Amino acid sequence: MTTVPTVARVPVARPRPSRAAADQGARLAAGATLWLSLLLVTYWWVADGGLGAPLAGGALVLSVGRLTGLVASVLLLAQVVLMARVPVLERAFGQDRLARVHRVVGFVGFDLMVTHVLTTSVGYAGGDLLASPGRLWRLVLDDPGMLLAAAGTLALVMVVVTSVRAARRRLRYESWHLLHLYAYLGVGLALPHQLWTGQQFVGSAARTLFWWTAWALAAVAVLVWRVGVPAYRTLRHDLRVTAVVPEAPGVVSVHVAGRDLHRMPVEAGQFLTWRFLAGPGWSRAHPYSLSAAPDGRRLRLTVKDLGDGSREVARLRPGTRVLVEGPHGRLSARVRTRRHVALVGAGVGITPLRALAEGLDYGPGEAVLVHRYAERPLFAEELAALSLERGLRVVDLPGSRTAPGNDPRHLLHHVPDLAHRDVYVCGPEEWATEIGRAALAAGLPPEHLHVETFRW
């Protein structure tokens, strides 16, 4: 007789519409702050005669250069804040949405920065295109802070080039993540140039206060949330690997224990950025979701061997120290406003959904988990236990995506009342996008669709 394992009892999370309302307010406030900042610097440009610049002598081109520099500065500062892992933004937007905003703001800000460099050099050259390279060279060498600004521009060029999809496909995640941190350096090196020589930045007490406050807030956000808080949590909780357990061919679960884990603000469905102090490569960051609901004593993450750092995880030994950053992600009880939920995952994307199936509060029939997998399902016995003990309905979809019944458009067949649930989706980006479209086509309101993809 087969014995089904008992799932550990953890505190369950009930729907809290107030948190969803708070996140909506945070999104509106963040968007309003960005747009008001852009309008304010544009107003200052207009007040200084930006619209009345004469056509002759390159004055109009120089005026455009000043405007693009102002707007680019606001967007690059916004980019820094978006990268700073500020909890209120993480909770409000979620990783996928934040990544999209980050990408758009970053590329627009970079394009405007390049336009600023080109138009400013042409403007200072009196509109002479042939003379502008020489004028730009003299500006870099002679004006205060310009040499640093040039170095910062090169750093940002490297970040943008490696962010293009074609380049990202050729890079390991760990390498891309390290290169991406140069964006902080690039923006930071531009600070002296803007605040020493930019009349639009220091032309009045109000402008000086605005720019210094914006720069200070961005710097504090990075120092606190990217450095201070991760260091504090790592030292306080003293996380160590306790076991590495094979789950399937090429898939292992890492069990981690530590001190006062009941005080770590992590929820089922979220992920952390992990660094394992196990020799060379320890500085590389790995974003892995929890595959079990945190119980205050231990954490569990499940990793598939996709090459590079993920392959090394299977070789970890008990006692290995762990550095963490996070938690991150909005695929948690925070976004839930309905009693009924549907958890839809593909492959190893089941990991955060497995944690949610354990950590959410629901009664028999109120939660359904749909799992598509190619060969064998992960956590089959654990999900069977949740089915027996808590009434979780599990729908297995074995085989490829093109197998009968596995097409995302058939989702409504497996969950007929899909439109009346909160729907959580995790898996490869293309597949998750198709699932999202199918759910919305079935009548699900967009605010009840919560997606996390394997994208960086």
TrEMBL record:
Q: Kindly report the protein's main subcellular placement as a broad class.
A: membrane
What does the record give as cofactor?
FAD
Molecular-function annotations in GO: 2 iron, 2 sulfur cluster binding; flavin adenine dinucleotide binding; metal ion binding; oxidoreductase activity
Which residue range or ranges hold the FAD-binding FR-type domain?
Answer: 234-334
InterPro entries, per the entry: FAD-bd_FR_type (IPR017927), Fe3_Rdtase_TM_dom (IPR013130), FNR_nucleotide-bd (IPR039261), MRET (IPR050415), Riboflavin_synthase-like_b-brl (IPR017938)
Q: Which PROSITE patterns match?
A: FAD_FR
Gene Ontology CC: membrane
Give TM regions.
26-46, 58-83, 104-126, 146-167, 179-197, 209-229
Q: Name one Pfam family in it.
A: Ferric_reduct
- Top-rank taxon of the source lineage equals Bacteria
For this UniProt record, the keywords arranged alphabetically read as follows: 2Fe-2S, FAD, Flavoprotein, Iron, Iron-sulfur, Membrane, Metal-binding, Oxidoreductase, Transmembrane, Transmembrane helix
Answer whether the UniProt record assigns the keyword Oxidoreductase to this protein: yes
As for membrane topology, the entry says:
Multi-pass membrane protein
Where in or outside the cell it occurs: the entry states: Membrane
Its name, as the record gives it, is Oxidoreductase
This chain's source organism reads Nocardioides anomalus
